[in-house]
Amino acid sequence: MDPEKIVAQELMFWQVALYIHTYVLKDDIQTDDYSDDDEVAGFSLWTLPSKNFRGIWESLILEQDLKNHLARYCLAALLFSKMDVDSNLVSCNRLILLHGPPGTGKTSLCKGLSQKMAIQLQDEYARALLFEVHTQALFSKFFSESAKLVGKTFSRIKSCAADKATLVFVLIDEVESLTSSREAALSGSEPSDAVRVVNAVLTQVDALRRFPNIFMMTTSNMTGAIDAAFVDRADIKQFIGPPPKPARRSILSSAVKELARAQIVDTFCPEKEAQELDRLAEVTDGFSGRLLRKLPFLTFSKLASTYDKQPLPSSEFLSEMVGVAGTERIVRGELASAEEKLRDNRGR
Question: How many CB atoms lie within 10 A of CB 348?
Answer without folding.
Answer: 4
